[in-house]
Design goal:
The complex is a heterodimer of chains A (315) and B (245). With 315 residues, chain A is of the alpha/beta class. Helices cover 34% and strands 29% of the residues of chain A. The two termini of chain A are 41 Å apart. The chains are: A alpha/beta (315), B mainly alpha (245). The A-B interface holds A 45, 48-52, 69-71, 73-74, 76, 78, 80, 82, 84-89, 93, 97-98, 100-103, 129, 142, 145 and B 3, 6-7, 9-10, 13-14, 17-18, 79-81, 83-84, 86-91, 244-245.
Chain lengths: 315, 245
């Protein structure tokens, strides 16, 4: 449904997005990750036709966004980053306007507004002016606007930003449900959200795609993925690391913590096939008081940190 | 066309959702009344015409029209709703036209509400209604020209006050270029080059509004106002495109 080819955007000398390509099919939820200023919003703005790309192509359905913008935009529902709404309108007025400009007429507007209001839990504020809404309600109003015409494609820039944990949960469930029939792109800073909702994730850093895969695949690439974490009590740290180092297949041993007689160590295997290896480690640990021993799955945020450059880190 | 109507409807409802519309209409009517009857010497003229009414319109509009139009695009930019608007399945032209036509219709409504002035003349004497109609057409076009200029400046900034000030300055120039006190200075300064004076005053709304006040709807004057509107709205589309790249 969405095809992005070699998308590039420069603002003066600054390259915001550099040669980004990806596709999203129906039934897919693509999570868009990246540090602040990595080019997530700019990419989304080009996908939705708000910004024209400096180079590259965006194809929505069968329509080219540059040459055929109106039919392409018709297929998309878009929730911009700051969730802007016309603050001088009521929620009902705003949603009716959104429905009408999306080409709905008469009773179809009423049904669409009703549906969106129900999905986004806006009944209580329906006739309130957008001006007077709290941030969560305002956000959901803009969200309702993006799904008012039941679009085949949804593009959402940080859809759960500024919501309370319950609302976040609701919105995630909603995205997941809708993702079964639609093609969805959404950006987020919250990595657990990606694991909960996305069928695929892209990590973008300084305008380029640095990773693309399912959340599971990405997790496996985390530096600690496949390592064995061992916590024992009552043994000296040197004894633990020494013995573990001697285990066949160990690449290196990292001492995580040595506190009050409890030693936590991480053992990295040479190869990733570790069925044998974990057995060997548990054999080595025999005789110690083992409090914990498990194979680490890898964490998305560790992988994220390992491949994206932080502008706060000192180098 | 449907999209233009949808945009225009939203825009008009935005005017009436806030007190701006009512405040504007009341002030406009009070000022037109004040200038017509007190300053313009409507009764002293002792003639059944609306000269003293239309005479002040370029000056009244100078402040009131930018006040109406300054929010058209700058508010959209400030709130970020421009990102919604431009990702809707409409062309930028439809958005520009919808917004312009809505504000113009609003100004038309305010102008139409001055009808008691016409009734007064009608009651007191026997005015030429053709002349009155011509004056109204000219005044409406004049408001449209100012409004289009304000749309342009409004698209250039997210600050309404800046949009207001720049529009007032441009509109003031369009008045002064053909205002008799200014043209007479120019004529004295350049006695041998009358064409320069004429060229400058050809850009003035005063020159073109004058004939309307006499009831003459000349196609040249019509063309002037429509081209100011067309040029400014085209400029708006260029500015908006520039914003997005």
């Amino acid at each position: 449904m969405i095809k992005v080819e070699n998308l590039t955007k420069t603002f003066g000398p600054k390259v915001a997005v550099n040669d980004v390509s990806f596709t999203v099919a129906r039934g897919e939820v693509l999570g868009f990750l990246g540090p602040n200023g990595a080019g997530k919003s700019t990419t989304m703005r080009m996908v939705t036709g708000f910004l024209p790309p400096t180079a590259g192509r965006v194809t929505i359905g069968t329509h080219d966004m540059l040459e055929d913008p109106v039919p392409a935009k018709r297929l998309i529902g878009y929730l911009p980053e700051s969730a802007p709404c016309y603050s001088d309108m009521t929620v009902h007025g705003f949603l009716s306007f959104a429905a009408e400009i999306r080409g709905l007429r008469g009773d179809a507007i009423k049904t669409a507004v009703h549906r969106a209001v129900e999905m986004c839990f806006l009944e209580n504020v329906l006739h309130q002016s957008v001006d007077t809404l709290s941030k969560g309600y305002r956000h959901r109003t803009c969200f309702a606007q993006s799904i008012i015409h039941d679009p085949e494609i949804l593009v959402m820039d940080e859809p759960t930003d500024g919501l309370d944990p319950n609302q976040k949960h609701e919105i995630r469930q909603l995205i997941k449900r809708m993702g079964e029939k639609k093609a969805i792109i959404f950006s987020t800073h919250i990595l657990e959200e990606v694991e909960a909702v996305c069928s695929r994730a892209i990590i973008i850093d300084r305008g380029t795609v640095v990773a693309n895969g399912t959340p599971l695949e990405l997790k496996r690439k985390a530096p600690n993925a496949g390592a064995i974490l061992l916590r024992v009590n009552g043994v000296a740290a040197e004894a633990v690391t020494g013995k573990l180092r001697a285990v066949d297949g160990t690449e290196r041993v990292q001492l995580v913590k040595d506190e009050n007689g409890t030693v936590t160590a991480r053992v990295f295997p040479k190869s990733s096939s570790n069925g044998e290896f974990s057995k060997a480690v548990s054999v080595a640990a025999q005789g110690w008081r083992v409090e914990e021993l498990h194979v680490e799955e890898g964490k998305l945020d560790e992988y994220f940190r390992s491949i994206t450059a932080s502008d706060t880190a000192k180098k | 066309m449907g999209n233009i109507t949808t945009i225009a409807k939203r825009e008009l409802s935005a005017y009436f959702a806030s007190p701006v519309a009512y405040v504007f209409i009341v002030i406009f009517l009070l000022l037109t009344g004040f200038f017509t009857f007190m300053v313009g010497g409507f009764f002293e003229r002792n003639e059944a015409s609306l000269i003293s009414f239309f005479l002040w319109h370029p000056w009244l509009y100078l402040f009131l029209v930018p006040a109406v139009g300054m929010r058209v695009w700058s508010e959209e930019r400030r709130q970020g709703t421009i990102e919604l608007l431009m990702t809707m399945p409409i062309t930028p032209w439809q958005a520009i036209m919808g917004k312009f036509l809505a504000s113009w219709a609003f100004l038309g409504l305010a102008l139409a509400l001055t009808f008691p002035v016409v009734m007064t003349v009608k009651y007191l004497g026997n005015p030429d209604l053709g002349v009155v109609a011509g004056g109204y057409i000219g005044s409406f076009l004049l408001a449209g020209a100012y409004l289009a200029i304000t749309c342009l400046t409004s698209a250039m900034t997210r600050n309404q006050v800046v949009a207001f000030i720049i529009s007032v300055v441009i509109c003031l120039f369009l008045i002064l270029a053909g205002w008799p006190p200014v043209t007479s200075i120019l004529t004295k300064a350049l006695p041998d080059n009358r064409w320069i004076v004429e060229l400058v005053s050809a850009f003035s709304v005063m020159t073109h509004f004058e004939d309307f006040q006499r009831g003459v709807v000349d196609s040249r004057h019509l063309l002037f106002f429509l081209s100011v509107i067309g040029f400014s709205l085209f400029g708006t589309s260029v500015v908006l495109r520039g914003l997005r790249s």
